[in-house]
Specification:
Number of helices: 7
CATH topology of the largest domain: Aminopeptidase
CATH class of the largest domain: Alpha Beta
Strand content: 25-35%
């Protein structure tokens, strides 16, 4: 999961307005100043706790210079060394989604007619669903186009965009991200059907596994699609208050 998470995060950051990826020995940081308050986009993946400890303040300085207000480090729950390093540096444990994955050899796509898909959706098409499901305004403005290796999916409910997700392939693994459903379309199995479509397509492209980080709201959806648990993955966040207008 972590190598795919690194590749996906860096690709998304580079696709945002003014964003880039900071590559240091053993540490990669996705820096997206266009979304300065969203640490899930401004995030760090590392190879080992010693490398993280050596590079942490350099990473913090880069986020400060970029004007990023919140950034996070992804840490598996078993890495106590990294947790202690981050706590001492002032990062705070913000969330603990479940690391999940499954193989793609037995994925049944939805039947024809079960989804009303928007063809080739753009970030602007995702924008109303992301805002209503996540509370993130301005996604479409920050991300002019998806990275070439990103595969977006958007389904309508009663004629209106209502459910979105994206997958990104990396070394045979398909990362699933940006899963969101507008409140009025929840409880109808829309996200489950959309995931089955995306995972079947990923398998047809040659991927053999899929990974994701499951929130409390998304966990039941992923369980229905066959994902298994691989331990909590913690988000150690450093956040500054928003500037006064």
């Amino acid at each position: 999961m972590f190598p795919t998470l690194r590749a996906y995060s860096l690709a998304i950051a580079r696709a945002t307005d003014g964003g880039w990826g900071l590559e240091l020995p053993g540490v990669s940081a996705a820096i997206a100043p266009a979304i300065p308050e969203r640490s899930v986009v401004n995030c760090v993946v590392y190879d080992g706790a010693d490398a993280l400890e050596a590079q942490l303040e350099r990473v913090a300085d880069e986020y400060d210079r970029a004007g990023v207000l919140a950034w996070t480090v992804w840490v598996h729950e078993s890495d106590k060394h990294a947790q202690s390093v981050l706590e001492a540096a002032g990062n705070v444990l913000d969330a603990e989604p479940m690391a999940q994955g499954r193989e793609l050899n037995e994925v049944d796509p939805p039947q024809d007619g079960e989804l009303d898909l928007v063809p080739d959706p753009s970030p602007a098409d995702f924008d109303p669903v992301i805002e209503r499901s996540y509370g993130w305004p301005g996604f479409g403005r920050a991300l002019a186009a998806f990275p070439p290796e990103f595969h977006p999916y958007l389904a309508r409910h009663e004629g209106e965009p209502a459910c979105c997700l994206g997958t990104m392939d990396h070394d045979g693994d398909a990362a699933v991200t940006f899963v969101g459903t507008a409140p009025e379309a929840r409880g109808r199995g829309l996200a489950t059907r959309l995931m089955r479509r995306a995972l079947a397509d990923a398998r047809d492209r040659g991927c053999t596994t899929t990974t994701l980080q499951a929130t409390r709201l998304g966990y039941p959806v992923y369980a229905r699609v066959g994902y298994r648990d691989f331990g909590r993955v913690q988000m150690w966040e450093r956040r500054k208050p928003a500037p006064t207008p």
